[in-house]
Structures are given as C-alpha cells and as structure tokens.
Structure prediction request, 334 residues.
Amino acid sequence: MPDDEANIISDSPDGLTFAFALEPGEDQPARRLDWEGINTHKNGPSWIHLDRTKQQVQDWLNDGSELDEMAVEALLAHRTAPRVTEIDDGLLVVFRGINLNPGAEPDDMIAIRMWLDADCIITLRQHRFQTVRELRLSVEAGKGPTTTTAILTGIALGITNRLSPVVENLRELIDEVEDSLAAEDISSVDTRGLAEVRRQSIRLRRYLAPQRDTLRTLAMSPSPLIDARARAELTEASERTARIVEDLEEVRDRAAVSQDEVRTQREIRAGQRMYVLTLVAAVFLPLGLLTGLLGINVGGMPGASNPYAFWVVTGSLVVVAIGLLVFFRRLKWF
Prediction:
C-alpha cells in the first residue's frame, strides 16, 4: 500500500478513518470533515468511514449518530453475514469482500458494514478495503460518486470485480490437477493444494451465496434510495456474483471428483503392487519350505555326499516354480 495511504487513512485512536462532504458538480473535490464537521454538517450528503473497533466510534454510534438501536447493534456486531435490512428511511447493508491485505488468505473474506439514507452513508471496517480506497481517491479528485447510493453501488461493484481473479486462479489449479490425472501422473498432483482449493471454494461460497441474494434484494428494493441507475448497477453486481457462485460450485465439485480420482488411482496402484507381492510369495513359499526342509542339520539327508545333489535340488526347485506359474496362469490369477 502506498505511503500516502498510510498518511491519509491511518489507524487513528479516535477511529475516524476519513469523512467527506460529497460536493455535487463535476471535478469539484469533496470537502474533508473531522468529528466536529460530522456533527455539524447539514448541507448535502456525506460519507463517513470508521474503524468499528475503536471505542470513540462505538460511543458515537450509540450516543451521537441518532441511528436506530438495531442498526447500531448490527453495525458493531463481531460476526455478520451479508444482509440488507430497511429501517425507516434508511438501509442497513453488509457486504463481504476478498481480503487483499498483505499476508491474508484469499478466502478470508472481510466485512464492510454500511448505513445509508439520503443525507449520509456510514461505512465501518476492521480491515482495509482496496475498493474503499479507490472510491476515496476518486471522491477526493472530484471524479467520484456524489450521492450515498452511488457510494453503495460503487462498493458493491468494486467488491464483485475483485472476486473474479481469485476464482479464476482456483479454476486454473483444478485444470492442472485434471491434466495430471488424465495423463495418469498422480505423483505430480499436490494433494494438499487440491484440498486447499476445495476448502477455499467452500468458504468463499459460504459468504458469496448470501451476498448474491443481498444484492438481488437491494436491486428489487422499493426504497426510494435505489434509483434506476443504482438498480441497474446492483442487478449487474448480483448477476456477476451469481456467476461466481456457480463457478465456485463447479470448482468445489471438480476438486471433490479429483480427490476421489487421486484416491482411486492410488488404491489401484497399491492393489497391483500387493497382487504382485502375493504372487511372488505364493511361488516362493513352497520353495522356501523345500529348502528349509533340506537344510535341517540332521543325519541321513539324501545326497549329502553326492557332488551333483545341489544341481539336482536346484533344478527341481526351478521345475516346481515353473509348475506353480503355469498353475496360477490356468487359474487366471495373472
């Protein structure tokens, strides 16, 4: 993340990541707001982005924001799934997005919570969102959204656009595994990686299936906040998410089939090796019995003083072995 990001959006103790008065008009940069500006701003819509883990943010939401108690509880919830709820004249929305922060797992989807009405959109996060950063930069440059609904749809589309590369990467990994299985080269199959692909697809789908439904509900919402343009953009985000969910289901099923195929091929190879070992043991068991019997250290062993006895015994063992092989072949054991 660039240095200016750390300077402009810092983990300040008061939890105010940034706030803007959204100024209408082309190429007109938005005006920055501090806590005092947030509480006194009345002219035009505003965008307030907060760190929900900070105590001052929690106190402001409970005492200074004038939000409904149910909305505040949902905004501060520790664990939450994608959802949309209409409360009075506003909308409570929760989305999940790919965690693109350094060191994060792709399937570790992080939540962004939003409250919006005609005058204000409040977004809360615990981890940094690249989508929010891009929107902030466009707003600062005067080229970004100027309404609360446009902020909502911008976040929805941004989160959705970042899902495709992750899913495509999972599909490529499955393609490589299937190519190895088609060539019967299971030694090159990374079984742990295959299990990880399946796990990631399951975890991603767990969040994205309800997010698809959330976007669809938003697109069909009768709320006056959702105008025709927003409805079209939310429908587009919903359809893209639906396709991604279908792709994840395909990846999950293909990973399961590949795991079964790897297991089956390994069991077949192990069975073949055990079969060969069994046949070898069956051939040499009687031979071992004979050599053991002839090797007992007692008097009276026939041929003990005959110089040709060793070769006679060896030839007899070869004949017995050949006889056993012919016998097994007639039984169709091999």
